[in-house]
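User: I'm putting together notes for a lab meeting next week and I want to include a structural view of one of the chains we've been expressing. I don't have a solved structure, so I'd like a prediction I can at least talk through. The sequence is below, exactly as it appears in our construct file.
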Amino acid sequence: MGFVNEKLANGECQVIDYKFDIFLECTDGGGPEGDPEKFNLVFEGGSVNYWSN
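Assistant: Thanks for the context. Below is the predicted structure for the 53-residue chain, given as structure tokens.
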């Protein structure tokens, strides 16, 4: 099946792969000043943080 976009109950979105229990969530959206967006990739009980420019 692969990754799918999913809207959460709180109105936020995430990208998730149910087969492998991996998901990408946006932890902080970029602001109007062009602040970087922050993402968190969660898998196997751990996570990797990513900040875009």
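A couple of points you could mention at the meeting. The chain has a mean pLDDT of 78. The chain has no helices and five strands.

User: Perfect, that's what I needed.
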